Amino acid sequence: MSLQKLGLVELHKKFTAGEVTATEIVRAYFLRISQVESKVKAFVTQTEEAAYQQAECLDQKLKVWRKTHPLTGMPLAVKDNICTEGVPTTCSSRMLQNFAPPYDATVVSRLRSQEYILVGKTNLDEFAMGSSTENSAFGPSRNPWNLHCVPGGSSGGSAAAVAAEECVAALGSDTGGSIRQPAAFCGVVGVKPTYGRVSRYGLVAFASSLDQIGPITRNVPDAAFLLQAIAGHDPMDSTSVDRPVPDYMKALQKRDLKNVRVGVPVEFFTEGLDPEVEQAVRPAIGELKQLGAEIKEIRLPRTDAAVAVYYVIATAEASSNLARFDGVRFGFRAKETKDLLELYMKTRQEGFGPEVKRRIMLGTYVLSAGYYDAYYGKAQAVRTLVCQDFDAAFKDVDLIVTPATPTPAFKLGEKSEDPLQMYLSDIFTISVNLAGLPAIALPCGFSGAGLPIGLQLIGRAFEEDLMLRAAHAYEQSTAWHRQKPNLR
Amino acid sequence: MTFETVIGVEVHAQLRTNSKMFCGCGTTFGLSANSQTCPVCLGLPGSLPVINRTAIEMAVRAGLALNCTITANNRFARKNYFYPDLPKGYQISQYEDPICQHGWVEVAVGAATKRVRIRRAHLEEDAGKNVHGVGTAGSRVDLNRAGTPLLEIVTEPDMRSADEVVAYLKGLRDVLMYLDVCDGNMEEGSFRCEPNLSLRPVGQREFGTKVELKNINSFRYVKDAVEYEIKRQTKVLTEGGKIYQETRLWNIDRGETAVMRSKEEAHDYRYFPDPDLVPLQLHEDWIEGFRSSLPELPTVRARRFITEYGLPEYDAGVITTSKGIADYFETCLKQFNEPKTVSNWVMGELTRELNNSGTDIAASPISPDRLVDLLMMVDKGVISLKVAREIFPELYSSGKTPQQIVQDKGLTQVSDEGALGKVIDEVLRNNPTQVTQFKEGKQQVLGFLVGQVMKASGGKANPGKVNELLKKKLIV
Fold it and tell me: Which end of chain B is more exposed for a tag (fewer CB within 10 A), N or C?
């Protein structure tokens, strides 16, 4: 069996046992990349040379002193909006095409301290704004299950790379579904942790109150394993929360769902939901019941407001977060400008793509004098109501189960002319970010066309352990995650 | 028509923290460009701010000293605008619910006391500096100052004249320096003031259109700029003109103000709560802890110096300008209870030497103990006042004790009657005319003769003794 078939936990065991060297791992993965990357286009930057060097160093060191960390020698990909010292971090934007940050994001320095191996930086919708990776300045990534389909977004490159076995696991970021939607589209597992569980320091901000970094992996134990490495308080991020991180792998040991109450929100099963998706999700809910869970119908009445609230708050924050891309200190700067104003205008005109500009304009508008109360102020008020919906629901249930997306992956170009249709592909994931809750997407079936369908489990804040346990119990009782795309 | 001037003042006081408002970079003034920067204050993608606890403490202490209410639930907001010296494209500031609100400060204007109300004081980060025309073509940006904590203190429109503005600014600066939260250095920009000024016909309640004044970096310029602007606006209004709401820069060379930007060019800053910073809760116990440990403030201390030590009002005012000076003064008094003498020396010789060498009194090479040594030597007649003054610069610069210097230079005062008698006899011999004049009743000549004796003794003679002996010899 070739090495790249192994999941993260399995590969870790094999490596720790000394059955495989880091160099062998790196060689296997770059061989795989050379075979499939031209079709998938998951990466913006590949770090092959550095990966080999690092692997050789590790192997040398381990000969002398065999001490490993959970991620030692593990070949991971990192979404290209997470800063990696000395390695380009482009956000798939012309604005940062040649930008190599002088520092590591906290999550990256945690991985580095565990001696992980960076395979490359993965493609995304420019500045994480989009749901298909079609907004990348460097061209879209493809869905490994069907190269005419999008991998989802914005972490489409990470999800595609994991599905195509170009890395053992990857990091993504999720602002409105950007980990879970591509994970669902690509038939892999994606976790959006509780807001504050994982440090945002070094994640190029899109919407600061919604962004969260999380793992994209081939199965639930891998997600638990990688989340363990990145979770925890960071003094460099004031919004990260100082509370103990549970042992997620240990939480997976319990295989049944006795005494777990799972809510099914009626608002998520209405028109707009593709029947094929419903046909996969309903049996999955049945499976949870089989495992001992108590299934309850619940209501989240403000679900229909979530998309509107999201596009006010996220764009408002983005308009301010993206102000620093002004051509003065780093990144792209327009040539031959006659004064400061023209420098700003041309740099931003030429550096940003159309979706980013659309959102900056929207966000600027909703914050402007005279409109603030009607838009931003109102959206914040409704956001509170969305949170209250979840608070009320979680009095009666321990988990909430929904489809991860309304449809399976769509075709490239299918929605790129209609931003609103594109925005609606995140309709099931967005309210989770507004409420800051943890959620996981995992495979629960396939469409008639052979495209993966994703299930979403939403937990209470900081109860990733229960969420992972339920997801794992489900995964163990099904075989969806064992199916692999045929790329050759 | 006669007009009344209405003035409010905004002050940006740089807080004396070791590190910046939202990162760990240092705050030293004048280092090489961009040497005090990091991903956070450079506004690099992905970096995040973390609130400096000391800056919060300093703002709270300043607020308490200015009789403000301290806001328990603080939020930071983003003020959005583009400028090359503003790395993130927004400044982290406070908008709603500033950390300090509704305070007041009492200041002395001439003999009267004036209460100026403080509307608010909020925390924010400073911008960097654009540097134009140095070296190669084009402009450059130095971000050493970017992210330095500022307390912006805004008054109500309570002042009516340039003198009141200056008195307020001096009083405020004294308070901040007393608390050691600001070094008060106006030239380096750690205490920047922006008066806003309008006129209205006497008796009218509504305010006129106000003009904001910038680029004022000394108290003298405050007075000049405000007085200029009063004259300018009076002239415009008297001639039937209109005042436009605008920002005007004080031009030091030309001694006038000129338009910098008009209201039409004012920005929409799109303030909104900074999502990178969680609301900052200040607990009442924590705030009260600072209240109980506030030092005695300058106006109160000055009043006490007048009543307790009998210092003249002028001396009390000068001595209490700085906490360091006032503390020094009181330390001296513990060993040498002659308040006026000590105050003379501290305000005179000591301040002169400190100013010449640009030294803070806390680092004075002459400790209170040593100054007292010197004053006691004068008091006991070991040296004359004149000698004490003469050796002061050496005392300041050499690190020697006054006893050593006096001994090395042989400057011990001569009080011995025998030794003095000889000198006096010689002076009387050499100045027969004056002796005759004295005997004829011209008393003033005595001073001349004393002077001659002092001169002949190389300044070492004890003047009191000389006086006494001279009289004895002349009257006989």
Answer: C
